[in-house]
Amino acid sequence: MSNKSVTVYTKPNCMQCNFTKKFLDDNSIRYEIKDIQESEVALAEVKELGFQSLPVVVFDGVEPFFGFRPDLLEQLITA
Asked: Where is the Glutaredoxin domain positioned along the sequence (predicted)?
């Protein structure tokens, strides 16, 4: 299991967000969820990172990315 800090920026009814969270759950990777509809701060953080699509995934040692990207999420398993 990874002990890296993982943050997933998400919103309700977002299929790619749900796929991303399911991937993390299935691989026992702990993560923090930041809902941009519940938090102005989370929305501002996503914009500051330069993204307009969700989910946005941020974790140590990897460039933040958006969308459901199993190829990049795999790096968390081996980390």
From this structure: 6-61
pTM reported for the whole predicted model: 0.91
Question: Is residue 25 within a helix (H) or strand (E), and if so which, with residue range?
Answer: helix 15-26
Residues 68, 57: contact at Cβ < 8 Å? no
Phi-psi bin for 29: left (phi > 0), alpha (psi -120 to 50), beta?
beta
Q: List pLDDT tens digits, range 6-53.
A: 999 999 999 999 999 999 999 999 999 999 999 999 999 999 999 999
Dist. CA 48–CA 31, nearest whole Å: 20
Give phi and psi for 37, each to the nearest 5.
-85, -20
